[in-house]
Design a protein that fits this description.
CATH topology of the largest domain: Rossmann fold
Radius of gyration: 23 Å
Shape: globular
Helix content: 40-55%
CATH class of the largest domain: Alpha Beta
Strand content: 5-15%
Length: 492
């Protein structure tokens, strides 16, 4: 039976933990690549994960951006690619244009002086350069799921010869709304011998379920210790100005895009204020406090139990006894009154062997109290800079581009013909500075409806992902499910 996002996930732990590898133990091709990059030693994520790649074992690797993870999967890819074969043999899926370019730069450095050709594909730009790379016989393809799917649907990219599949920053791919595209991409992967690995900073339940779908008996490798185990809770704090603190929270939410979160305030007044602010910004949010009438409280709780509320704003007292399944984030808008409260709050995520994220917003003087809590409980707490306006604009722009391109892919010929009526108006509005506000208003409305609406029931999400457009049907990709079933029944 085919797995889906509803399926209960089961984390597989290695029966035999492989020893770390040194740069001297790498193959000659991999050592040459390290020389080209000027690497004298391997960083932990490379030393720990490369042995599993070489052993042909599918892995979920918990690793943050900047840890050296790109080299961890590019080096083994060098072993897999046949430079004489002009076909896509390795596919690296990434959530954003920025990451696609970053990965491609490192891949070009490591593959320099080899005959391996690279194609980088992402949305929001023309197709000509990407098509040229495919026609040139690119063997390593790096791209965002939406644009990769575009090329598959247009028959400009084939995965018939694929040997290795990498998901980089899988948690962000889900937060960007790429799950339906990823399900459709899977249908174009025919071989049952694909080596697949997933890299993610966190492994909340939805990411582990994604691994269940795309990886074969995947083992989870965490860099948080010598043991191979699931990461628990990632602790992050932001130093934010006291004025317009709610705006800082909005920036953080936009960047993180939690699938579900409890936002803690210390007073019922702040609970109500913040709930109103979030709703005005278009978020699916509601509140719980002692001032709430029982009927309203029951209505909010019913949405919580159904998994139909994305953001619950509450005090510690009001949130007592509330258990939200698969809670991805705990956000502390105000730091707790005592250290024990921090543990109780943060402990609401990362349940049942999954991982989660605890975020705290603090003033400059409050961070010392938070750091003392971290020392007392031996918590690794990371300070992050508040996202800038430029960073926020870039992330939002990439998300809306991905959403619109996905919507365009789903349209049939008659709908596209109907759209053409508005081409002259679109050109006119785009060229008139005074009218740009109309376009931005439409983009904002669609973004809010698509990304900040109440979460759809899991079954509905799966149905949408499985649904075929008219374009999909014309391609008739063969299913990989039969092969995957055989693999599950006869594990190697």
């Amino acid at each position: 039976m085919e797995n889906n996002m509803e399926t209960d996930s089961k984390t597989i732990y290695p029966q035999d933990v492989l020893p770390e590898i040194s740069i001297e133990e790498l193959t000659p091709e991999m050592r040459d690549a390290c020389d080209r990059a000027g690497w004298k030693t391997l960083v932990p994520v490379q030393a720990k994960s490369i042995p599993y790649f070489l052993a042909g074992r599918d892995m979920m690797v918990q690793s943050r951006t900047g840890s050296g993870k790109t080299g961890a999967y590019i080096l083994p890819i060098l072993q897999k690619i046949n430079a004489q074969q002009n076909a896509a043999q390795a596919l690296i899926l990434v959530p954003t244009r920025e990451l696609a370019l970053q990965v491609s730069r490192e891949a070009e450095m490591l593959t320099r002086e080899t005959r391996i050709r690279i194609a980088v594909v992402y949305g929001g730009v023309g197709y000509n350069a990407q098509l040229e790379a495919f026609r040139g016989g690119a063997q390593l393809v790096i791209g965002t799921p939406g644009r990769i799917l575009d090329h598959l649907l247009k028959n400009t990219l084939s995965l018939d010869h694929l040997k290795i599949l990498i998901f980089d920053e899988a948690d962000r791919m889900l937060s960007m709304g790429f799950y339906p595209d990823m399900v459709k991409i899977r249908k174009y992967i025919q071989s049952d011998k694909i080596l697949s690995s997933m890299f993610s900073a966190t492994f909340p339940p939805q990411v582990i379920r994604l691994a269940d779908q795309f990886l074969h008996h995947a083992e989870l490798l965490s860099l948080s210790g010598s043991q191979v185990h699931i990461a628990e809770i990632e602790h992050i704090y932001y130093v934010v100005p006291g004025m317009r603190k709610e705006r800082s929270l909005v920036r953080i939410i936009e960047i993180e895009n939690p699938s579900s979160a409890i936002i803690f305030c210390n007073t019922k007044e702040n609970v109500h204020y913040l709930s109103v602010v979030l709703k005005r910004f278009g978020y699916d949010a509601d509140e719980l406090s002692s001032d709430l009438a029982q009927s309203m409280r029951e209505k909010v709780m019913a949405r919580v139990r159904r998994g139909a509320l994305r953001f619950l704003v509450a005090t510690d007292v009001a949130a007592r006894g509330i258990d939200i399944p698969d809670l991805s984030h705990v956000i502390q808008y105000e730091p707790p009154e005592d250290p024990e409260a921090y543990i109780h709050r943060a402990g609401r995520t990362g349940r049942m062997g999954s991982s989660g994220v605890a975020i705290s917003l603090v003033a400059e003087m409050e961070k010392f109290k938070l750091q003392s809590i971290a020392r007392y409980y031996n918590i690794n707490m990371e300070e992050r800079p508040l996202p800038s306006e430029d960073e926020l604009e870039r992330v939002v722009s990439e998300r809306i581009t991905a959403l619109l391109e996905a919507k365009l892919r789903a349209r049939d010929n008659l709908q596209i013909e109907r759209m053409r009526r508005f081409l002259p108006l679109a050109r006119s509005l785009a060229q008139a500075e005074d009218e740009l506000s109309l376009i931005t208003m439409l983009l904002d409305d669609y973004y809010q409806q698509s990304l900040h609406a109440p979460p759809a029931p899991a079954a509905e999400v799966v149905d949408q992902a499985k649904g075929h457009t008219q374009t999909d049907k014309s391609k008739k990709p063969r299913s990989r499910n039969k092969n995957r079933k055989k693999r599950q029944e006869n594990p190697s």
